[in-house]
Write a structure and sequence with these properties.
single chain; Hypothetical protein af1432; about 65% helix; binds fe (ii) ion; mainly alpha
Length: about 190
């Protein structure tokens, strides 16, 4: 089956498991594609980015309800469990024969530019560009969405937090995101 047919199907599974995933995936996808275009990605890479963004958290289908729906902060063990969603997502997509570039983007979407991310502590430009883009827009959407233990940050507060933590992000992409984010959104 073609990836363009499989992606909506996989997205639906994720949405059934986690009702909030739909809005998050759509928002991340919109922002990722805007940033990707601004950065000058080729149409092929933009398609990889779009597909990966739509299902980037698919590995969460294999995480327990208790951890997935927990309202408070995670314990260390729970945090290690949630980190598994990157590996589980990549493994799941391997069985479906999805484009390896989409799988690689999903595997790396929580890697930090300074090498402190997960699951493999990949660093700098060794992280695929699509995953570096997702890391930025995924963080922004998470910060501007409410959590059980805190209300949503305003866009300005979210950008302030990301500026403080800038070592996690590709500097070229972060600068571009700040620039167009300030021009395009409110
Ligand atoms: Fe994720």
């Amino acid at each position: 089956m073609k990836d363009s047919n499989l992606i909506p199907f996989i997205g639906k599974i994720l949405q059934m498991r986690d009702p909030h995933a739909d809005r998050h995936s759509d928002h991340v996808c919109d922002l990722a594609c805007l940033l990707g275009k601004e950065f000058g990605l080729s149409p092929k890479r933009l398609e990889i980015l779009e597909f990966a963004a739509k299902i980037h958290d698919i590995g969460k289908v294999a995480i327990s309800d208790y951890v997935l729906n927990k309202q408070g902060r995670y314990t260390e063990t729970e945090y290690l469990t949630i980190q598994q969603h990157t590996l589980l997502g990549a493994k799941l997509l391997e069985t479906l024969g999805i484009d390896p570039a989409i799988r690689l983007t999903i595997l790396n979407h929580h890697e930090n530019y300074d090498g402190t991310g997960y699951p493999n502590k990949v660093k700098g430009d060794d992280i695929p560009v699509e995953a570096r883009i997702l890391r930025i827009v995924d963080t922004y959407d998470a910060l501007t969405s409410p959590r059980g233990y805190r209300p949503a940050y305003t866009p300005e507060q979210a950008l302030g937090i990301m500026k403080r933590d800038e070592r996690f992000f590709d500097p070229k992409l972060l600068e571009l995101f700040f620039k167009f984010r300030l021009e395009t959104f409110n």
